Known about the structure:
Elements: E1 4-10, H1 28-34, E2 38-44, H2 50-59, H3 63-66, H4 75-78, H5 85-91, E3 95-100, E4 137-138, E5 144-145, E6 149-152, H6 163-181, E7 185-191, E8 198-201, H7 234-237, H8 240-243, H9 256-286, E9 293-299, E10 304-305, E11 311-312, H10 318-321, E12 322-328, E13 360-367, H11 371-378, E14 434-440, E15 459-465, E16 469-478, E17 483-496
Parallel strand pairs: 1-7, 1-9, 2-13, 3-7, 6-8
Antiparallel strand pairs: 2-12, 4-5, 9-12, 10-11, 14-15, 15-16, 16-17
Helix pairs in contact: 1-9, 6-9
Amino acid sequence: DGMNVLFIIVDDLRPVLGCYGDKLVKSPNIDQLASQSMVFSNAYAQQAVCAPSRVSFLTGRRPDTTRLYDFYSYWRVHAGNYSTMPQYFKENGYVTLSVGKIFHPGVSSNYSDDYPYSWSIPPFHPSAEKHENDKTCRGKDGKLHTNLVCPVNVTEMPGGTLPDIQSTEEAIHLLNVMKTTRQKFFLAVGYHKPHIPLRYPQEFLKLYPLENITLAPDPWVPKKLPSVAYNPWMDIRQRDDVKALNVSFPYGALPDDFQRQIRQSYYAAVSYLDVQIGLLLSALDDAGLSNNTIVVFTADHGWSLGEHGEWAKYSNFDVATRVPLMFYVPGMTTSPVSQGARVFPYLNPFSHIGGSVPQGQSKKVVELVSLFPTLAELAGLQVPPACPEVSFGVVLCTEGSSIVHYFNISEGKVEQGKEGCDDTDRCFYEEPVAFSQYPRPADVPQWNSDKPKLKDIRIMGYSMRTIDYRYTVWVQFDPNNFSANFEHVHAGELYMMENDPNQDYNIYNNTSHGW
Length: 515
């Protein structure tokens, strides 16, 4: 009778996690999940901004097919009536439930989080969400501000809580309802942090003394970075504490001590998130559901923490496009779980010592657009067909391909030819590639470079990441007919991963581009 699915999606989380080799972060609960999961260390979003990325992986189509590069259109009206991953599970007999931020709210999900197409009951939004951008951060002056760096006393917050705490409570409630009614479920839980503002319970700062926090390894704007590639982090500049620093636009650097504070608060927000994940997974155990529930953990995209002199997302660099991605599949990534056994005991980040290694790890380059077919296959549903070249009229198809065939390969043994895959159309002999893209309104950074509206897009940066390199071309784009002209290249970037893992030395102009 099939597995349940618990789909956890985090806003703006890059892989600063113990299970991804980060030495500073305290993330024991996510690491514990990884220790029972297949972990992908090279997973990439298709566009490094919330709404386009979410609509892309929830429909299994790339941004050029959803035609959503900003926040202002609903794909069913504007592109095609594409089925979503939760809709497909719903049509296959699952109760589908949305808690917190799954679809980006607003017009891009029809002001309804795509209910009733995608969800069995109306999506839950935490009531504290409406206070996210209120003045709730106490400044050095004792007054309240809308700061970027915002540790808070939760008891002083409106309602005495924070959105992610409420989402965890609701998700746990729904797990217990599902256990009682014995219905097969697809429960999506979307966490807000570490999205800005970096507002989290202040006790998490204790985990990260400022003297332990370094700057990014490359906190300067690279000499050969094309101006079109740079994102000027406007959303950061608009916060009260950053505004007060009067940094010059677009390339002025934030003061070192403030850079450390942002990095410290990002880490603190990740540990606060880790506690929520720990409580949620421990409740999955309590409900006796760990032995028949697939758990997926990922993020909509990454977030720059000062690398290349950049902050926030809005770029094609790995720091903005790379995401954590792991799958817990009972009986597949772990030996079968006996009824009542604890798989996910809650771990307190303030006292837990020691890391855990992932159950299995793949360095294969994979894309979030592959989530839909992968989850369908893991749950034993028919895998949606591959989309034809043009698929605006096709209701159910996917532009990703299932990555389940990577699961049973231990990294130790040499991978054989076709990796045991029968369907030759879906199996490539060559190395996999992840595609990302980002629109710009102009060749030089300006006020709307991070988030241009569709009508203002003039250039599209198409980027491909293989295990060896990241290659990006910024080409002419016409928003009226959604066409990219690859004959008209504004700029290019090429980074070789082996000797330039941080993507600081653009060698595009040192090479010929016949390929």
